[in-house]
TrEMBL record:
Annotated source species: Photobacterium lutimaris
Any one Pfam family match given in the protein's UniProt record, by short name: MlaA
Transmembrane segments: none
A GO-annotated cellular component: membrane
Segments of skewed composition (Low complexity): 36-48
GO biological process: intermembrane phospholipid transfer
Renumbered residue ranges of the record's region Disordered: 25-67
Signal peptide per UniProt: 1-22
Stated family: Belongs to the MlaA family.
InterPro entries tied to this protein: MlaA
Keywords: Signal
The protein, known as: ABC transporter
Length: 327
């Protein structure tokens, strides 16, 4: 009897043990957990809880890269060599007037001589002669006298501008130049008073024979820099000679022509004072002045139509500027 009871009790204990093991979940290490276990909150692996997992392990368990797996780009590791080379190449093209960024029409075969004359003008003749004389003229000459002199000298150029406007097939401006000349020469006391502007006959931009030649495809020709006189191209020099053949300019003797040039030069030089900082800050003042002069002549020859970049050059320039903005 006792032996039979003991056997039943032992069998019952074994059954209870087996049942308990079947109902208890299998304990797993953190490495054995699957993402689904974590996403469903199934952390019933004995004493294992969410607190036992580090933030890196939790992030990795959710199927996302862990902190150790993320590679953070270091800005200091970016190689700027190619960018620097591209920038240097473009700046060299701009400075030398080459490539898609250069000024069209620049021909400077005498650059060595021209630079020497530029240095003479820029370092000596301008700061010690042209600039102080021009500023003294502007500062100490009564404004009504300066205005009268400017009007008188400008009136002398009207006939040449009229002829060149006709040659450039701009009849409207030719008529305006003609009307301004006869009105100011008579009612304006030989041009001293600008009666035409008061009558709403505004002065167009003067047209020179150099502009006319440029319109019909004549190149600028060699560029020259002369002491005191400044920059000029072969085309502009020849154009000035032709313009001087028209009355009343042809009636002026050498000294009168020199006086006209001197007074106009003083007004022009004084007007450039505000732009001196731009010239001073330019990487190459000679190139800056030369290209600005040629650009102005090209602009006048085309009647104000700016030559656009080719599409390929424009696209490349846009991309390059985007790179600069991104730095």
């Amino acid at each position: 009897m006792d032996r039979t009871l003991n056997k039943h009790l032992l069998l019952l204990a074994i059954l209870l043990t087996v049942t308990a093991c079947a109902q208890s979940p299998e304990q797993r290490s953190p490495e054995e957990l699957t993402p689904s276990d974590l996403s469903t909150g199934d952390l019933s692996s004995g004493d294992l809880s969410s607190d036992d997992l580090s933030s890196d392990e939790l992030l990795s368990s959710n199927g996302e890269p862990s902190v150790d797996d993320i590679v953070i780009a270091d800005d200091s590791a970016i190689d700027d060599a190619d960018y620097d080379e591209d920038l240097a190449a473009v700046l060299e093209e701009v400075e030398q007037g080459e490539g898609g960024y250069g000024v069209p029409g620049v021909y400077d075969p005498f650059e060595g001589f021209n630079r020497a004359m530029w240095n003479l003008n820029y370092d000596y003749l301008d700061p010690y002669l042209a600039r102080p004389v021009s500023l003294a003229y502007v500062d100490y000459t009564p404004s009504f006298m300066r205005t009268g002199i400017k009007n008188f000298l400008a009136n002398l150029d009207e006939p040449a501008s009229m002829v060149n406007s006709l040659l450039m097939l701009n009849g409207e401006e030719a008529v305006r130049h003609f009307n301004r000349f006869w009105i100011n020469s008579t009612f304006g006391v030989f041009g001293l008073i600008d009666i035409a502007s008061a009558a709403d006959i505004r002065k167009p931009v003067d047209k020179q024979f150099g502009d006319t030649m440029g319109k019909y495809g004549v190149a600028n020709g060699p560029y020259f820099m002369f002491p005191v006189y400044g920059p000029v191209t072969l085309r502009e020099g020849a154009g000035d000679v032709v313009d001087g053949l028209y009355l009343p300019l042809s009636a002026l003797n050498f000294w009168q022509s020199l006086g006209k040039w001197a007074f106009e030069g003083m007004e022009d030089r004084a007007a450039l004072v505000k732009q001196e900082a731009i010239l001073k800050d330019s990487p190459d003042a000679y190139i800056f002045t030369r290209d600005a002069y040629i650009q102005n002549k090209n602009f006048r020859a085309t009647g104000g139509n700016v030559e656009l970049l080719e599409q390929d050059d424009e696209a490349y320039l846009d991309d390059f500027m985007d790179e600069i903005d991104g730095e």
